[in-house]
Known about the structure:
By secondary structure, chain A is of the alpha/beta class. Chain A has 11 helices and 14 strands.
Amino acid sequence: MSVPAIRVSDLHKTYGKTTALSGLDFEIPAGQVTGFLGPNGAGKTTSFRSLLGLTRADSGEMEILGIPSPGGLREITKRVGVIIEEPGLIRALTGRVNLLVAADTLGFGHERIPELLEFVGLTADANRRVSEYSKGMRQRLALAAAMIGDPDLLILDEPLDGLDPAGQHVFKARLRGLAEEGKTVVVSSHNLSDIEALADYVVVIDRGRLVTQGPLSSMLDGGGTRVEVVEIDQAVAALSSAGLEVTRADDHLRVATEDGSAIVRVLAGAGIYPSVVRPARSSLEQVFLGMTGNDS
Amino acid sequence: MSLLRAETRKLARRKLYPAMVAVLAVFTLIAAFFTLLFEQIFPGAAEGLTTVYKPEAYEFGMTQIASQAWFPMLLAAVAMGSELSGTVWATALTREASVLRHVLARLVAYVVAAWVAFLIAVAVWSVFAYFFAEGTGGPALTVWLDHFWKLAVVAAAWTSLGLGAVAMLRSVGPAIGAVLGFYFFEQLISLWDAYEGFSATAASISIFGLDIPPGFEDFIPGGGMSVAHATLVLAGWTALGFLLTWWGLRRKDA
Lengths: 296, 254
């Protein structure tokens, strides 16, 4: 099994009397897009800040790309690109100069700058001041700055926050493209539908502790089969008499079996023809609310 | 070196630095006008105002320019503060061990920038003195060179204090208020005998080892301080500012 991109074990952090992280454990697999979720105050940003040495954890163990943090941060930062809270851009400078400054600050060369501007679609605007950029353009420039050292891992804190739908679409496409190139992308977001559309893997935390983690597909797979029929009452009676456990929802049934053909046979035998028979799947929002009892 | 290049690039590409140099040049011209020319144009108009003549007029400019300590302090506070108030610093600085390198790079870049600005102000003063001050003669090249490195020592002390202020306060507005307040307050108390020996303002003037012209003794401090003493005082203020900066930025949890 490959080394996880991030491994956190029993991480604790308090700010005065406020506990931000309380024995947090999680692992993020390499080469995928991971959604890092939690309600407000769950400890998402504190986790990122602790991992990157921007705040000191009280105790616990952290590894990034197999390297202990904060001890190995000097090496880690050469392989990690970061957008924490707001993009770290200087508005008085042009987009291109911001990338030059980012490269110099982090000790990288300038050779990737044209390619990165092209990747984030800002080549034509590279010589405009960042103060003239839209929020989406600033986020894309920040992504380019985070990628200046061709990092193996990108950690992005709320990167889609405030972007319009078109901007979000472009940004998400860029992130998916990076994962397809084998990079690891970790994205925190309040918007669960963004994560649902973007992530392969999800880590959910609440009150500074891990709630759950795993592949998104298995998390959303609620088990059973969703059946949509017009004759709901008759369908419930037929399926129940066939020994299948049936739950009635507003406009559909949920049957506790994954054998769709068995369901169709029973219903057809009763003269009922369903319009939809498919594996039941919850939305990430339903899963999230069920686990945390919070609105994000 | 790449950190230094990054800081230099940021300063060079922003309007802040040339705008501040322009203000410094204007203030220098005003000071030169009142010190070297006013009495010639309006004799007796300002009671107590003394005119300085060549060759002293050139070197006297050093004391006037070194007194403009607002420049390095404001430059440091605004240049670094504009990054701290956003999260530019936090994003760039993702490694604990490199706070020292980041602070040093900024200190060196801003000190050099302040020193260059002081040299420009010296040029402005000297050209004005050449054309308008009465008298003849001027300092030798070696004297000029001696004064130039002393200007760098002055720039280092005040730049370091500006960095310290913004690192402690973490916001541009309050930092500007603090450095200007400190600048005027330090000028005032530098005339107090018990404090003069520790004063950054007094040391910034005394480091040039000049005789204060008659008529200026009452409002130019540091008359009794030796060059070595002044250099030590400025080194002390530089160290204090650096420590405040380092400590202020280490408090990342704040």
